[in-house]
Amino acid sequence: MTKHLAVLISGSGSNLQAIIDAIAAGRLDAQIVVVVSNRREAFGLTRAEQAGIPTLYFPLKPYKESARSREQYDADLAAQVATYAPDLIVLAGWMHVLSPSFLDRFPGRVLNLHPALPGQFAGTHAIPAAYAAFQQGEIDHTGVMVHWVVPQVDAGPVLASVAVPIYPDDSLDDLETRMHQAEHRLLVEALAQIDR
Ligand code: GAR
């Protein structure tokens, strides 16, 4: 059955593009019903518009300015997303931690892509953190995971993960490129294997 996806982004949206391309190529039986960004300048919004996908820009700033709570933002965001009736909510570079005010509206239906292996380098800047850890001799590889979202940052039951090697002569750019290639594959594979 065709899965209806809401994709939440904050930036370039290269992972959103991987989903768009996989659907167009018939590799993923899904439809993106909305792309949401908390940043107006996120290039992912342009990618969505170019693909004819509805977009929603939903910033936190007006909430902060009017002393409305983060929980209120999350609840209002969930209400907006719910109007598109998605089966799954995909956090593809969404740089906000979602509280239960959002998550409780979609129990067991929110998944997140994170550029690290389970239990490693939670939060932002996971790729530079892994690169630095490699330079310190603390790790010899990193990886990418897709997991169900729980209130803890970048944690929760793992759906799929893949190791990504780091080589001694890698620049940070080299590692970032390899990581993004792994993400684009893993996210589509993970979505394809979900049966709901
Ligand atoms: C991706 O590397 C994603 O894993 C990461 O943001 C990037 C978004 O790239 N997410 C996190 O770090 C979540 N903690 P994109 O906008 O090109 O898809």
CATH class descriptor: Alpha Beta
Q: How far do the termini sit from each other? A: 8 Å
Along the chain, the helix and strand elements come as: EHEHEHHEHEHEEH
The number of domains: 1
CATH topology description: Rossmann fold
Radius of gyration: 17 Å
Please give the largest β-sheet: 7 strands, mixed
Give the name of the CATH superfamily. Answer: Formyl transferase, N-terminal domain
Beta-sheet strand percentage?
15-25%
- Give the class from helix and strand content and strand pairing: alpha/beta
Number of strands: 7
Low-confidence stretches: none
Bound chemical compounds: glycinamide ribonucleotide
Which keywords apply here?
196 residues; 7 helices; 22% strand; Rossmann fold; binds glycinamide ribonucleotide
What report would you give on this structure?
This protein has 196 residues and is α/β, with parallel strands linked by helices. The chain has one domain (3-192): Formyl transferase, N-terminal domain (Rossmann fold). Helix content is 37%, strand content 22%. It contains 7 helices and 7 strands, in the order βαβαβααβαβαββα. It has helices at residues 14-24, 43-50, 61-65, 70-82, 100-103, 126-135, 172-193; strands at 3-9, 30-37, 55-57, 88-91, 110-114, 141-148, 158-165. A 7-stranded mixed sheet has the order 3-2-1-4-5-6-7. Helix 1 (14-24) crosses helix 7 (172-193). The termini are close together. The model has no long low-confidence stretch (mean pLDDT 97). Glycinamide ribonucleotide is lined by residues 9, 11-15, 44, 92-93, 113-115, 124, 126, 154, 183.
